[in-house]
Design a protein that fits this description.
Layout: E1 2-5, E2 20-23, E3 28-42, E4 45-58, E5 65-66, E6 72-73, H1 81-84, E7 86-87, E8 94-103, H2 110-116, E9 119-128, E10 132-133, E11 136-138, E12 148-150, E13 152-153, E14 181-182, E15 204-205, E16 209-222, E17 229-238, E18 270-278
Antiparallel strand pairs: 1-2, 3-4, 4-7, 4-8, 5-6, 8-9, 9-16, 10-15, 11-12, 13-14, 16-17, 17-18
Amino acid sequence: MLHRRSESVPILGIPPDSLDEVESEGSSWYNGLEVSLTKRLSHGLQFLASYTFSKTLDTDGADVNGTSAGTVLTLGDQNSPGHRWGRTSFDRPQRFILSGTWTSPSPSHGVKGALLGGWDLAAIVTIQSGSALTIAYANASNTFGISEDRAQLSGSCAKSQIVISGSVQSKLNNYFDKACFTTPPIIGADGKGTAFGDSATGIVDGPGQANIDLSISKNIPLRWPQQGSNLQFRAEFFNASNHPQFSNPDNNFSSETFGVISSTSVNPRVGQLALKLSF
């Protein structure tokens, strides 16, 4: 269900953005290439590698603004699906997942078997590009009464220059080049009212992610409390490399913190130990 605001409200005393029209509307399009490679258990090893190259477009992928009434508003011209068409906020062009387990070969009897046998190693590696970002702009001077808009391109930058080059850590306080954007042009007869911003929906990518989770376990066969019992020790590490992975920056051009990244998307390394007795 799409909630959109009526733009032409010829009733004196009622602001245009105080009336809502509720209707079912929208369209979406997805294309993707999916490739996977599987290695079945042999020599103690098995793994699954999956890669996806895709693109997702729709008319309402930037529905990031809400109101106190609970409605969700897309950015820009509510009566123009073509103006709102672009990459969805969850679009990630590339994603690679590698998962695998390995059981160490070892003697099956005696002291060596007890010490070296029963070890298992498992890992999950996730590498993906950042999600699509739309540059928002809160514009109370919009001629059509729609204050939830997108920023205007200044024309001084190529698309590749909108995100400042370098590592994410080097641009935590200025992810975007602010000079690439400006306020929408004035079109009102009063010299104040503006048109809609012309920057595209999902114009750039946010920070990508690269993460590895590991686990190692040791299974010890027991005869107590009954035959066939098993004691398992397990150690697990999430974000095992302790690699910082950052959330999306503030994408509102009218905000004082525009382009600032203030949080991470994944916790620092977390480890946990477990001991399980099965009988």
